[in-house]
From TrEMBL, chain A:
ATP binds at residues 14-19, 38, 46-49, 62, 107-112. Residues 7-355 form the THIF-type NAD/FAD binding fold domain. Heterodimer. GO terms for molecular function: ATP binding; metal ion binding; SUMO activating enzyme activity. Pathway: Protein modification; protein sumoylation. GO terms for cellular component: cytoplasm; SUMO activating enzyme complex. InterPro entries: ThiF/MoeB/HesA, ThiF_NAD_FAD-bd, Ub_act_enz_dom_a_sf, Uba2, UBA_E1_SCCH, Ubiquitin-activating_enz. The gene is UBA2. Belongs to the ubiquitin-activating E1 family. This is SUMO-activating enzyme subunit. Zn(2+) binds at residues 147, 150, 363, 366. Keywords: ATP-binding, Metal-binding, Nucleotide-binding, Ubl conjugation pathway, Zinc.
Automatic annotation (TrEMBL), chain B:
It comes from Paramecium tetraurelia. Pfam families: ThiF. This is NEDD8-activating enzyme E1 regulatory subunit. Gene3D superfamilies: NAD(P)-binding Rossmann-like Domain. Belongs to the ubiquitin-activating E1 family. ULA1 subfamily. GO terms for biological process: protein neddylation. The keyword Iron-sulfur does not apply.
Length: 539, 480
């Protein structure tokens, strides 16, 4: 069987465990171009599954090394590698527009959500996969289907009361979380729940006495004679108090000299500090401690990862992609799309293919009211843009950013702070600014994509046909269990809302006649902050 | 300063002792077609000890086309050699050897696992995974001469908290707790005490213990709530924790299921596992319950209470039970294994596999199957028989489809199936034995997961056949 697609251009986001498996599968394929992008460099803990990399590549760019390795394995596959974050300057909608399909091979929800939003707006087909230990799944998204953001997955982060962490730990996990706070509050300068006063940070003894010695603890610990220990090596037996202190003092001193640090679960020194602090606190409270691996795992929220599961989900992803590419009647095809999950349930099914639920009409990532504008941010004032938009939509408007009203036609005072500002004071020049527009009267929702274009002083808009139909749906999240299938009436209404893949928005100069109010409830998309998943603590 | 442990992300799944078993394992791969190589790749990356690759052929154009692990400049070289070199390059820790021979005597050495790649293989001495890909369809068959799993690692950890049947010291403790005091005290009563008290109250009121689902989750729940009447909602966290853990009050008999499913073989002395099972049976006879495990869940209560419960009450009993159980094992099992066994008593599992020979002669009949996978299994048997007769795969030529149809009818009679759809017969003729890397990638991924289970003796491997249907991305497991 031959897989030649000389007219197809693919973008793969992420060149990690799943990315390597994807490249393995497409190594015998031909595309017009196959772009790969990843901001990460190679680490030793990648090598048990990311088989395009070797020990000597440590510290080098994943995408560049993968492209180099593949040059020998698959010379016909025109790989173009980007060593960057997908949401960094230069990778705007205009970059995405060149692709027919995007393969997500990512390890975090933020980037998936970002890529999903852009692809939904541009009508680009997406396949996505993820794995965790023996479990994994693959999905496909397209305009008109359920999208990545439609039904947010409930967070499984467990919450702990602050007082338990601070003063009443009853298990080792509590102590790990405490140790993590100690780390971030001492070395990252972050604010946390611990009291970090009343000691001299330059004196390790003073710090130790503050945190491990005290009447309030069942078992106060005094500093004892110890030798510094640079590395954990007690897998075979429980370490003594002297040895624990040796590890703690070594790690504290090193970390304190390094200054501002982000906790890194792959940095042995960081883990050493967390381990020693946790173990000491467990002794403080006479709690049985977990072993080194478990403590490390809890501290880093590390996801289990193995090659075999990646190999499965990557293949499922490519099967989805091929059936999309080879199916010419795409409009019909995407209605039949489904999601496949690989699960180890112990029951009969190992791969479950589930019929995808319908899109959530209130999902602001994939609804189809889209407005586009490119203007010169350094010239155009906020008030001018808003007035023109009001004319275009024929309506009074509100603007809200991050749940905060920044523009409100009903309350002119609120607008004064920003009305005469230039756009560049609010938005970055080199990124897509994605603003979600929603009428206060719940008439309709729309996404407003605002981009900077030097020299474009005149304000122009392009949009899909703005429709209020979507809001007539009930929120399916509340009815999910009862009716997973939409009624005929709803399907009919959805069809009427005119779904158009938009590659050149300039062509769709359809003005909307509805009365609208605009809420901007999202900030411009910037490089997703490295999401440190620290356990939530309620005080 | 990056972590030097490249196996970090997997040790979390199977533990350091699982990793040690993996690193000491010898695996034999028979045949270098994509699916088996894919499986082996997923074992080489996590650091399998030693691999032996046997294949009689040399690299041809078609290998280059469908096998990622055969580089394009190796035409004419031994497939076994090329694949071994490529795989070992991925992980310097792994060692191996290759043989370019037709008939390889597997009985000369010990193997922890044999991967029979695109062939049926009847050896019964070793763990075995048979693999076949055919167009968009894949088949995996497991066999193990001895499969007794202690660490089954179920999704939800079960605890044996003796709420229903407390041992003497625990009962005394439970009975000593009064539900009178200030808010701080009441809101820190551990949920196991609440469950025990609620059971007593229920029994007093109704003259029996809750037994049906509705009694446990409706009536019994009401009794728990009655214990915290008058307490403001924000202070009832521990009572709601009790409601969330209602099942803990009724799981004291769980271990019976796992114990009864295990048959003891004659010469008990030979195998540690049977020594443990036999000791367990004796222990239960004497004490009325299995030895208490160490696992103890987190619960809302004062730290001192928690430590007292865990270390003093339960902890002492755990140690006492361990010593009694250890004595019953008569020094035939090491302490570490005994402890591991006690922790897993609730979830022990044994599998007796049918041999390949038994399956080939007469597969088990399957009554209710809800997808096409059973049909594909019958068709795979049929094309294999076609190959054995003609020494080639069936094509779309009319003569071939007719001959295949006759074989299919015969196979159907063997398993008591009336007929199978003609569309499927036509589809399988379209494949002509094609091997796709995409299917190999899925099946190889699953095969290596089962391989890890067999080698580490953790988790429960499938029993015994998995069919993957790439047309619909679905898979099912059958015991043939």
């Amino acid at each position: 069987m031959n897989y030649n697609y000389p007219n197809i251009r693919i973008l793969m986001v992420g060149v990690g465990g799943i990315g390597c498996e994807i490249l393995k599968i497409v190594s015998k394929f031909t595309f017009q171009e196959f772009h790969i992008i990843d901001m990460d460099t190679i680490e030793v803990s990648n090598l048990n599954r990311q088989f395009l990399f070797r020990l000597e590549h440590r510290g080098q760019s994943k995408s560049l090394v993968a492209a180099e390795t593949m040059k020998n394995m698959a010379p016909q596959l025109k790989i173009i590698a980007h060593f960057a974050a997908i949401n960094s300057p230069g990778y705007t909608m205009d970059f995405f527009r060149q692709f027919d399909a995007v393969i997500m091979a990512l390890d975090n929800a933020e980037t998936r959500s970002y890529v999903n939003k852009v692809c939904q707006a541009l009508g680009i087909f997406i396949v996505d996969a993820g794995s965790m230990g023996f479990k994994g799944q693959a999905n496909a998204y397209y305009q008109g289907t359920v999208c990545y953001d439609c039904y947010p997955i409930a967070t499984t982060q467990k919450q702990y009361p602050a007082c338990t962490i601070r003063s009443q730990p009853s298990n080792c996990t509590h102590c790990v979380i405490w140790a993590k706070y100690l780390f971030t509050q001492l070395f990252s300068g972050e604010v946390g729940i611990l009291e970090v006063e009343g000691f001299d940070k330059s004196q390790p003894n003073s710090v130790f006495n503050k945190f491990f010695k005290g009447e309030e603890m069942p078992n106060s610990i005094d500093i004892v004679e110890h030798e510094l220990i640079k590395k954990y090596h007690f897998a075979e037996r429980k370490e003594t108090l002297e040895e624990l202190q040796g590890m703690w003092f070594y790690a504290y001193d090193e970390l304190n000299h390094l200054g501002q640090l982000q906790y890194d679960k792959d940095d042995d020194l960081h883990v050493l500090f967390i381990y020693a602090s946790t173990a000491l606190r467990c002794r403080n409270f006479k709690i049985e401690q977990y072993d080194y691996q478990q403590i490390k795992s809890i501290s880093g929220n590390i996801i289990h990862a193995i090659a075999s599961t990646n190999s499965i989900v990557a293949a499922l992803e490519i099967q989805r992609l091929l059936s999309f590419i080879e199916n010419h009647d795409k409009a019909k095809y995407y209605q039949d799309l489904n999601a496949a999950s690989y699960v180890q349930t112990g029951k009969k099914e190992r791969i479950l293919t589930l019929k995808a639920a319908g899109p959530n009409p209130l999902c602001n990532s994939c609804f189809h009211n889209q407005i586009y504008s490119k203007v010169d941010f350094q010239v155009v004032k906020v008030v001018d843009l808003v007035n023109q938009l009001k004319n275009y939509l024929n309506s009074e408007i509100n603007i809200v950013s991050l749940s905060r009203i920044i523009w409100d036609d009903e309350d002119e005072d609120d607008n004064s702070a920003i009305r005469d500002k230039k756009l560049n004071e609010l938005f970055k020049l080199d990124l897509d600014n994605r603003l979600v527009i929603k009428s206060i009267e719940e008439k309709f929702l729309a996404v407003f994509w605002l981009q900077h274009l030097a020299g474009q002083a005149e304000i122009q808009f392009a949009s899909t046909k703005i429709s209020d139909k979507l809001l007539k749906f009930k929120n399916p999240l509340q009815h999910k269990k009862k009716e997973r299938v939409r009624t005929q009436q709803e399907i009919k209404e959805l069809k009427e809302t005119e779904v158009m893949p938009i590659k050149n928005p300039e062509k769709f100069q359809t003005a909307a006649q509805k009365s609208t109010e605009i809420l901007i409830d999202e900030e411009p998309i910037e490089q997703a902050e490295q999401n440190k998943k620290v356990e939530l603590v309620i005080d | 300063m990056s972590s030097n442990d490249k196996y970090d992300r997997q040790v979390r799944i199977w533990g350091p002792h699982g990793q040690t078993k993996l690193q000491n394992a010898r695996v034999l791969l028979l045949g270098c077609d994509p699916v088996g190589v894919e499986t082996l790749k997923n074992l080489v990356l996590p650091g399998i000890g030693y691999v032996v690759i046997v294949d009689s052929k040399v690299v041809t154009e078609s290998d280059i086309e469908n096998n990622f692990f055969i580089p394009h400049d190796t035409i004419g070289q031994s497939r076994a050699k090329v694949v071994l070199e490529y795989l070992l390059e991925m992980n310097q820790d792994v060692k191996g050897e290759w043989h370019q021979v037709e008939n390889f005597d597997v009985k000369e050495q010990h193997y922890d696992l044999i991967i029979a790649n695109e062939q049926r293989f009847s050896e019964t001495k070793f763990n075995l995974i048979e693999l076949q890909t055919y167009g968009l369809v894949g088949r995996m068959r497991l066999y193990s001469p001895k499969c007794h799993i202690i660490e089954t690692k179920p999704m939800n950890q079960k605890y044996d908290l003796r709420i229903f049947n407390p041992f003497q010291e625990l009962k005394e403790y439970f009975d000593s707790i009064e539900f009178e005091g200030d808010v701080d005290y009441l809101s820190h009563i551990p949920y196991i005490v609440i469950l025990y008290k609620a059971l007593q109250k229920y029994h007093k009121e109704k003259g029996k213990y809750p037994s049906t689902f509705s009694e446990k989750h409706k009536d019994f729940k009401q009794v728990i709530l009655s214990l915290c009447e008058g307490l403001e909602y924000q202070y009832t966290g521990n009572f709601y924790e009790a409601i969330d853990n209602i099942d803990q009050a009724f799981n004291s008999e769980n271990w019976k299921n796992s114990l009864e499913s295990i048959e003891i073989e004659q010469d008990v002395n030979e195998d540690q596992y049977f020594v443990l099972i036999s000791a367990l049976r004796q222990f239960v006879q004497i004490h009325g319950a299995p030895p208490l495990g160490k696992a103890f869940p987190d619960m809302k209560c004062f730290t001192q209470t928690y430590v007292h419960l865990k270390n003093t009450l339960y902890g002492t009993k755990v140690e006492k039970d361990f010593q009694a159980f250890q004595a019953l094992c008569q020094n035939k099992v090491d302490d570490e294994t005994i402890r591991l066994f006690i922790e897993n008593i609730q979830d022990l599992k044994s599998i007796t596999y049918r041999t390949i020979q038994q399956e080939l002669q007469q597969p088990n009949e399957v009554e209710d199957y809800d997808n096409d996978c059973y049909i594909w299994y019958i068709l795979l048997r049929s094309v294999n028989e076609f190959y054995n007769t003609n020494n080639r795969w069936p094509t779309q030529e009319k003569g071939d489809t007719q001959q295949l149809q006759e074989i299919v009818d015969k196979q159907c009679r063997l398993v008591n199936v009336d007929s199978i759809p003609e569309t499927h017969v036509i589809e399988i003729c379209r494949y002509e034995g094609a091997k796709l890397h995409m299917i190999a990638s899925v099946l190889g991924g699953m095969a290596s997961q089962e391989a890890v289970k067999l080698i580490t003796n953790q988790f429960v491997p499938i029993n015994n056949t998995l069919i993957y249907n790439g047309l619909k991305s679905e898979a099912s497991i059958f015991e043939f």
